[in-house]
Amino acid sequence: MTPQMFPLLLLLLAGPPAARPAPPTCYSRMLGLSREITGDFQSLQATEPLGSCVRYLPRLYLDIHNYCVLAKLRDFVASPHCWKVARVDALKDKVRKLYTILNSFCRRDLVFLSDDCNALEYPIPATTVFPDRQG
């Protein structure tokens, strides 16, 4: 093999250029946005002083598989607390977006597995491991 052929061989072994990843599905968009909202809400609670209006907001521990999430999102957006607080307004915008996605665009892509409204009052444990269905 000649030294001029070595770069050509590397190009052939590398294969075709990687394609762009597929766009997010409705489900992945809902799941990602719900996690982002929950994280932003927890961050907001952690950084705001105890006497602030944030403590009066409805809790936002979202599980998009719980039917009560729709009412929870509506309650949060309609909450009269924290008007004109920039971080809360930004969070309410994300909540409105998720509600619209859940209720309109991706309505058929979601299956509600629960209707336990109390479950949305507390954080979902991060250590939850779902059983392997293939094994």
Please characterize this protein's 3D structure:
The chain is an all-alpha fold. Helices cover 46% and strands 0% of the residues. It is built from four helices and no strands. α2 (26-47) runs antiparallel to α4 and α3 (69-78) runs antiparallel to α4 (86-105). It starts with a helix and ends in a 30-residue tail after the last helix. The model has no long low-confidence stretch (mean pLDDT 79).
Topology:
Layout: H1 5-14, H2 26-47, H3 69-78, H4 86-105
Helix pairs in contact: 2-4, 3-4
Overall structural class, as computed from helix and strand content, comes to: mainly alpha
Low-confidence stretches: none
Proportion of helical residues: 40-55%
Shape: elongated
What are the main properties of this structure?
elongated; 4 helices; 46% helix; 135 residues; mainly alpha; single chain
Short summary:
With 135 residues, this protein is mainly α.
